[in-house]
């Protein structure tokens, strides 16, 4: 399956993407993780992206489209993939369509803004592999350590109140309209992401028609 996961910041795209990745045996491609790795390594893309991300703005379309096209051309994507956080603008959605990559479904996780603010304020992530945790809702087995790789859990630079507000505004203005784009193409399905993680997974699997 070639799947796009969309939804507001903190909707649970990363969390559900991990679960689906294991269940379907295909990789998750997260543009947010790729950009944060690029910042860590201080590559050209990382240096360019850092300011945008820290202010909660989107990285320019041409930069992100080039990174994703490159990644989708890798052989492991032939068996399917889960795109998390891309496309995020109409221009990105159009570029993906124009690239000829076939998308089977676009799943939008629906969560209200007030829930998002609580989630992102309590979120932690692994400094090594990027896996998402929460000090309130999704605690690791050992405090401060990643269950998957043992890496240190940290707070993301863009999870502060002002940046969270900006990211939500950007989502509503620039990303939400692409739901219409995919609804017209007959690819959009929605699932509530407001329930507990396990219940959200059930919603997601039902929306995707996976038993
Ligand atoms: P990105 O990394 O994609 O961030 P985001 O979309 O803001 O989403 P998040 O990663 O914050 O949240 P999520 O939906 O994955 O939720 P998670 O599972 O972590 O992008 C970051 C930045 O990079 C952007 O702002 C932009 O600048 C740039 N960028 C990326 N892609 C781009 C693109 N295509 N174009 C341009 N710029 C781009 O969950 C959140 C928290 O809630 C966690 O703590 C988790 O444990 C908890 N949680 C999850 N599910 C539940 C649940 N059901 N109940 C309770 N808690 C839950």
Provide keyphrases for this structure.
211 residues; alpha/beta; five-stranded parallel beta sheet; three-stranded antiparallel beta sheet; 8 strands; 47% helix; binds BIS(adenosine)-5'-pentaphosphate
Explain this structure.
This protein is of the alpha/beta class and 211 residues long. Helix content is 47%, strand content 16%. It has nine helices and eight strands. The chain has helices at 13-24, 31-40, 44-55, 61-72, 90-98, 113-122, 161-175, 178-184, 197-208, and strands at residues 2-6, 27-30, 81-84, 105-110, 123-126, 132-134, 153-154, 188-192. It has a five-stranded parallel β-sheet with strand order 2-3-1-4-8, sandwiched between helices. A three-stranded antiparallel β-sheet has the order 6-5-7. α2 (31-40) packs across α3 (44-55). The longest helix is centred in the last third of the chain and has 15 residues, at 161-175. It is globular. The mean pLDDT is 95. It binds BIS(adenosine)-5'-pentaphosphate. The site of BIS(adenosine)-5'-pentaphosphate has 36 residues, from α1, α2, α3, β6 and α9. BIS(adenosine)-5'-pentaphosphate binds at residues 7, 9-15, 31-32, 35, 52-53, 56-59, 64, 85-86, 88, 92, 119, 123, 132-134, 137-138, 158, 167, 193, 195-197, 200.
């Amino acid at each position: 399956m070639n799947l796009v996961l969309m939804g507001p910041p903190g909707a649970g795209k990363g969390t559900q993407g991990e679960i689906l990745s294991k269940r379907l045996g295909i990789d998750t491609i997260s543009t947010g993780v790729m950009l944060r790795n690029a910042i860590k390594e201080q590559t050209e893309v990382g240096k360019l992206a850092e300011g945008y991300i820290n202010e909660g703005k989107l990285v320019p379309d041409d930069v992100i489209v080039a990174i994703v096209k490159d990644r989708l051309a890798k052989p492991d994507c032939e068996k399917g993939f889960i795109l998390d956080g891309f496309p995020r603008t109409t221009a990105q959605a159009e570029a993906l369509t124009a690239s000829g990559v076939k998308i089977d479904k676009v799943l939008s996780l629906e969560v209200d803004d007030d829930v998002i603010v609580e989630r992102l304020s309590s979120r932690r992530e692994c400094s090594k592999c990027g896996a998402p945790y929460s000090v309130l809702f999704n605690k690791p087995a050992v405090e401060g350590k990643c269950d998957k790789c043992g890496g240190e859990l940290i707070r993301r630079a863009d999870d502060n109140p002002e940046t969270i507000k900006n990211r939500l505004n950007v989502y509503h203005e620039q990303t939400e309209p692409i739901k219409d784009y995919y609804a017209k193409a007959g690819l959009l399905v929605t699932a509530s992401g407001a329930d507990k993680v396990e219940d959200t997974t059930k919603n997601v699997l039902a929306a995707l028609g996976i038993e």
